[in-house]
Amino acid sequence: MSTDRRSGTSSLEIAVVSPAGARTARENGADRVELCTGLELGGLTPSTATVEAVVESGPPVHVLVRCRPGDFVYDGEEVALMAAEVRAALRAGADGVVVGALTPDGTLDTHALAELVAAARDTDPAAQVTLHRAVDQAGDPVAAVAALPGLGITRVLTSGGAPTAIEGAAALTAMAAAAPGVDVAAGGGVRPGDIPCLLAAGAGSVHLSAKSRATPRRAAGWVPLGAGGTSAEDDTHFVTDGTVVAAARRALDTTA
């Protein structure tokens, strides 16, 4: 397993959906990538083939494991599926996984998380396990972060329970104080200019999607597929914007 290039310092993570995005992130200064599919849905589990291809592209890869869009309250079948996805991602070469689950009343689903952490540790004892932004829909996000060390989770991706991380900066500070051994990764609407404030608030790393819409390449007609009623111009996919990644890298280096 590879490690962050700037071990011991604040790190930059970029959400990507493809090998091309991973290469762009790497070339513009990312320390690691979070790999998913369906960014427009908040991110879903990518295929094993995609994980393998992105691992080949470097840098270190953390794989989002989320079996469907919507809430983070899962039944037993869904948890078992995600445990299998955790194992598949790590066997494909990922350095870590990004997971989360809540109960209907908005607390951490400790039983589901224990199963997902066990799947990771049984597959690779060195795997890093991150709690994803399910924490931001918890009734008490700070209390949820305080419970993570007991679950074997060493990192949390969070906006501090706010729509954006910069709006949740005070909660990020409280999270860092509540769980000193947990890396609080600020994510959610992060722009390069936000990075100094987020680090000052106590974030140990920052997470950006750094995305832009790809220009549609269709030459023929267009009809809507699925729900949503989007336009032909908006019916496209996201790609990683290297200029945003580079700006984030500069902001991180200047601040750190």
From TrEMBL:
Taxonomic source organism:
Streptomyces tendae
Family matches, as PANTHER family: COPPER HOMEOSTASIS PROTEIN CUTC, COPPER HOMEOSTASIS PROTEIN CUTC HOMOLOG
Show the InterPro entries listed in the entry: CutC-like, CutC-like_dom_sf
Matches recorded under Gene3D superfamilies = Copper homeostasis (CutC) domain (3.20.20.380)
Q: Does the keyword Cytoplasm apply?
A: yes
Query: According to the lineage, what is the superkingdom?
Result: Bacteria
Q: Which UniProt keywords apply?
A: Cytoplasm
Q: What is its main location?
A: cytoplasm
Q: Please state which protein family the record places this protein in.
A: Belongs to the CutC family.
Localization, UniProt: Cytoplasm
Q: What is this protein called?
A: PF03932 family protein CutC
Parts forming coiled coils: none
UniProt cross-references to HAMAP family, sorted A to Z: CutC
